[in-house]
Amino acid sequence: MKAGVIGAGAWGTALAQLLAGDGQDVLLWALEPEVVDAINEAQQNPLYLPGIPLSPAIRATGFMADLAACDLLLVVSPAQHLRKVLAQAPAGVPLLLCSKGIEAGTGLLMSEVAQEAQPASPIAVLSGPTFAHEVARGLPTAITLACEDKALGQRLAARIARPSFRPYLSDDVIGAEIGGAVKNVLAIACGVAEGAGLGLNARAALISRGFAEMTRFGLARGARAETLGGLSGLGDLVLTCSSTNSRNFSLGKGLGEGGSAAELLSNRRTVAEGAHTAPVLRDAARAAGVEMPVAEAVCALLTEAASLGQVIDALLARPLRPE
Ligand SMILES: NC(=O)c1ccc[n+]([C@@H]2O[C@H](COP(=O)([O-])OP(=O)(O)OC[C@H]3O[C@@H](n4cnc5c(N)ncnc54)[C@H](O)[C@@H]3O)[C@@H](O)[C@H]2O)c1
Ligand SMILES: O=P(O)(O)OC[C@H](O)CO
Asked: Which atom belonging to ligand 2 lies closest to the Cα atom of 246?
């Protein structure tokens, strides 16, 4: 049995390291040839996960066809690249989707994209409060593993669980995905509050009212409330809204400090999924008749449709209403 990981960014590399922790072979597909070479020759990924010595049980490849040797594929490419990357992957192998976002143009969640790109492959989702560098260092972590097929979910959980990495099972795939996608947008808002010096009361308000938005949107899409209140929803929201270790929070901080969205986005190699999800989420929420004022505010800042002052004034001027 050999697991494959598609995407050698920070999270794909950390997951490969987790799986290789007990000596099992892991094959890691990387887009960049220099990442393949650095992993195979120096057991490092300085581009995306610097400072972590990687297990020699991880082999990297640039050839997707090599993944035909795997009986499980963890899919960790950024959400907007998932469809084209999956189209090249071997068919019929269980896919554990680890990316967080909503596809632009279609409004589809990653499981829905995967069903279209690989209709013969069983699908599960892995999502929760998990900074890659902490998992790679073996720090204690809990995560949601969602799969409609309970027997497959249990097999996958047993396969990826480690003494300090605890998957919690769910059959609410949509709920797990919505939490992971929406929290990235809300983390940008919390970063803005940090960068603009709005204080910790404002951050707590954004987390709570943002969670209300996540819940409204999730319920409208068929998610269950307990999933949204669990690791993949509230848990990840709290993590990502609390630290500049989050790329989404950091992007928001730059916006709050007065940076231009275009410049902040063009100056980065790593992915801030919330920037791509925000406009899709706004459109999906409007279409479903779900109010998401914080997500709307993030969108306005990212598209430079409104200034920071205008966005703050608009949020504070909303009608008073029951909680
Ligand atoms: N980093 C984390 O702590 C973490 C934790 C949980 C989930 N995630 C999710 O994992 C996914 C990947 O994030 P990451 O942090 O590993 O990425 P990253 O920001 O570290 O690296 C960027 C990734 O994008 C890939 N990429 C760039 N252009 C591409 C293209 N044209 N086609 C295909 N791939 C391309 C790169 O090869 C690289 O793997 C995201 O959806 C993210 O939300 C990340
Ligand atoms: O760095 P971010 O903002 O992409 O967050 C990483 C993970 O999603 C945290 O769970």
From this structure: 1
